Automatic annotation (TrEMBL):
Domain PPIase FKBP-type: 94-182
Domain of life: Eukaryota
Record lineage: Eukaryota, Viridiplantae, Streptophyta, Embryophyta, Tracheophyta
Protein name per UniProt: peptidylprolyl isomerase
GO molecular function: peptidyl-prolyl cis-trans isomerase activity
Amino acid sequence: MILQCFAALQCSIVPHHPTVRLVHPKIISPTPSSSTITRRGALSAALTSTTFTLILTLTPPSKSAIAEFSELPRSGGVKALELRLGDGEVPADGDQVAVHYYGRLAAKQGWRFDSTYDHKDENGEPIPFVFVIGSGKVISGIETAVKSMKVGGVRRVVIPPSQGYQNTSQEPLPPNAETVYNHFQSNSSC
């Protein structure tokens, strides 16, 4: 019996899953010599050891170890992945908040369309995006995401078109674009 390892690469979103297949070879010589048995034994032991090492190192992490996006309550489909929980207050309507973000399109290989880190003050520090919760000055997906964050929190947010830029062409974004905000951070709440 020979063990053969095969690893199949799947979609880039799906983790790498190794598979092991057992293959029964045809026996060619009916009486092996003593040196052939020794080589077979050594080869079999090495192959078995390598196979088990591959299985142990390539086994995907348990489901509990993989962070998942969750839909925010009453958000219209906005999903968030918590990267770091904040330790401050949660903002309320009328509070002024400052956030840093990288805005990307979910399509077009994650094309970045905006980032607060691209806008610097006279000291070279990134300028946060400041707005008042409930003012209607930002797309509803951003407001929904920030309203449920504590100050100092970092999350990745996926905003569907219905809560984002919808079917209007707001350059540089195409109509009905699903957007992803990476490292969406709530810095302060006043």
